[in-house]
Amino acid sequence: MRQIAVAAAIVMFLTPSxxxxxxxxxxxxxxxxxxxxxxxLAPEMTEHPLxxxxxxxxxxxxxxxxxxxxxxxxxxxxxxxxxxxxIVKGDAVHYDMDRNVVDAYGHVHVVDKYDVFVxxxxxxxxxxxxxxxxxxxxxxxxxGGSGSADSIDLIDNERSxxxxxxxxACQCETDPAWYLKAASFDMDQGSNEGVAHNGVLFFQGxxxxxxxxxxxxxxxARQSGFLPPTFSLSSTNGFDLTVPYxxxxxxxxxxxxxxxxxxxxxxxxTTNYRYLSPTYSGSVTIAYLPDDALTKTNRYSxxxxxxxxxxxxxxxxxxxxxxxxxxxxxxxxSNTASxxxxxxxxxxxxxxxxNNGPWSVVARVQRWQSFSTAPPYNRAPEVDVKYNQYxxxxxxxxxxxxxxxxxxxxxxxxxxxxxxFNPYVSYPLSGPGWFITPKVQWHYVAYDLSSIGSTAPTGQxxxxxxxxxxxxxxxxLIFERSIRLFGTDYIQTLEPRLYYVYTPYRNQTFxxxxxxxxxxxxxxxxxxxxxxxxxxxxxxxxxxxxxxxxRFINQATGDERARFVVAQQYYFTNPQxxxxxxxxxxxxxxxxxxxxxxxxxxPGFTTEQAVQYDEQRNQLDQGTSGFTWKPGDRExxxxxxxxxxxxxxxxxxxxxxxxxxxxxxxxxxxYAVGQANYDMxxxxxxxxxxxxxxxxxxxxLSFAVQKYTNISTSTTxxxxxxxxxxxLQLKGLTKIDNGLAEQxxxxxxxxxxxxAPPEPESRFSNYE
Length: 768
Hints:
Radius of gyration: 36 Å
Number of helices: 3
Low-confidence stretches: 1-35, 336-341
Structural class: mainly beta
Mean pLDDT: 85
Shape: elongated
C-alpha cells in the first residue's frame, strides 16, 4: 500500500514553489480560448508560468522511502518523481538532491512533456531534463511516432539522440507497415524535425530506400522534408521517377525542388519558389532538362507570377511564361499534370492597375511567345480607363477609353495603334414583379496604322475612324405562385424577358482585326448588344431576344429544385458587318432556339440539359445532357453527352462524345476512380483513366493507368499515349502532398481527396 505520508515528507525537504493551477482572484475565472466564440476552460485547467528565478517543486511518492534530509531520498515499490512536466517512474527511484539527479531502475517510465520513454533503467538530471536510458521504447505524442533503440540520450526537454534505433508513425505495437532503422536519430521537438543518419526505410518488412541522411517531420505543422515520390511508365518518357523535396524557408516563403529521372530522356530538375506577404505574393517555377536524349536539345520552361498591392487602390502584376519549344508542355508535363493539351502560345504580361470608387485603370504590356502560324497580336502597350456611376438620380452612366499599340511577329502584317471610346447611359426602372432598362451607347474607334499587310483591303488608309450608336431596352416580368408537388410545397416562378437592341450599319471594311472574334452563342451571351468580342467590330443589329424561365423553389429551404428556360433571337434586318470584309452576308431572320433545364431530383442527384436547335435548317447544332450523383463523401458518379455540329470548314467532323467519371468506395479503405471520354464519330477512346486508392492507417497507395491525347498544334500532329502512375505515401515520414489527387481532381468532377491525417493529440491525452 502506498504511503501518502511519504510524499508529504519528501515535499517538506524541497524548496516551496507556487502551484501550477491556482484558484484565487481573477485567475480562478474561466477563460475564452478564442473570443468571442470558444470553449471555456475550467479553473483547474488554467496554467500559470512560474515567477522568474523560481524552480518548480519536486514531488515524490512510493510504497516506501528512506534517505537523508535535504541530501537524497530513495523510493521503493512503485517509485515516482514529478517535476513540472517531467515524470520518472520505476520499481526503485533514487533522488540525489545535491546534484539534482535521479536514477530509476526496473520498469522505468520517463514522461517528458509530450513524449514517453520506457526501459529497464534511466539516469536523469532533473532540472536540465537531461539523461540517458538503455534499451528504451518511446512514443512521441504529437505525431504518434514510436520505436525502440539500444540507448537514448535526452539532451533537454526538446532534443534527444537515439542510438541504433527505429522509428515509425504506425499505431501498432508490433509489425508496423513501415519503419526507419538507423545508426542514430536526432529528434528536435522545437524545430519539429527528426533526422536519421545511415538509415534504411522498410515497407512491409522489405527495405525500399537507404540514405546517409533523411529528414522527416515530428508534427503536422509545415516542415521541410520529402514529399511522396511518384513513379510512372509511359511510351514517351519510359520509366519516370520524381522525388520532390520541400523547404520550409519561413512562414511566408517556401521552395519545392523536384529532381526527376526519365529513362528515355534523362535527368530533369524543377524548382518552385512561393512567397507571400500582406502587400505582395507570387511564385517562380523553372524546369530544366539538359540534353534531352530524344530531341538532342536543352529544354526548359519558366513561369513567373507576381502580384503587388501598393495600397490606395494601386496594384501591379506580372504573368510571364517562356519555353524552349512548343512540345515542352506535352513531353515534360509533370507526372501528376493533365496531359490533354496543345498549347502553342505563352503569355508574357506585366501591368499596373488602379481601382478607386467608380474608376478602374489598367496599363499593361502583353506579348506572346507563339509557335502558331496565326499568332495573336502583342499589346505594346495598352492603357484602359473605365468609369461607372450607379443610381445617380436614378441613372447609371459611364465610359470606357482604351488606347493600344498592336504589334505582331508575323511578317507582312498590319500593325498600328487603336483608340476606342464607349460612353453609355441607362435608366433602370423596377417594381414588384417587373423591370425595364433603356440604355444608349456610343462606340468610337480610331486607327493610326504604322504598316499595312498585303492581305488588307484595296485602298486601305493608315488613319481613319468610325462612330456607331446603340440603343437597347431590357425588360422582364416575374410571376410567382404556390404549388404542391409530390407532397412538398414549392414556389413556381414564371419569368418572361424581352431584350431589344438597335445598332445602325457603319462601314468597317478597312478596320483590321487586332483582337476581335465572334462571340459564342449560348444563354450567357444571348442578352448582349454586340455579336463580336473585341474593339474592331460593332455589329449592326435590329434584333429582339425573347426568353422565358420557370423555376421551382422549395418553400421551406429556399433551394431551387428545378429550372427550365427557352430563348430565341429574332432579326428584323440581316446584319451586314462581318469579321472578314470579303465574307458573304447570311440571310438570318431567327436565331437558333436554346432550351435548357436543370433538376435536383433527390439527395445528391442533379441533372442538366441544354439544346441549341437551328429552325431554318431543321437540325440540332449543339446539345449537352448529363447527370451527377453524389450521395456522400468520396462517392460521386457523373455521365455526360456532348454534341456539336461542326462547321463545313472543319470537314463536317462534329463533336459527338460521351464522358463518364466517378469515385466510389469499394471498402472502408479502398476507393476506385475512373474517367472515360469516348468519341462516337472516330469510334475511339480519346482519354481514359482507371485507378485505385488505398488508405491505410499510416500509409496510402495511389495507382492509375491513363490514356491521353495531345491535341495537334500548328507544328505537331495529334498523338495518343498511355502511362502508368504510382504513388506511395508514408504518413508521418513524408509531408502530405496532393500527388495523384491533382490528376484525379482534373479528370473527375466532384472528386474528394483521401482524408487528412488526424490533428495532433494534446499533451494531456495520455496523461500519467
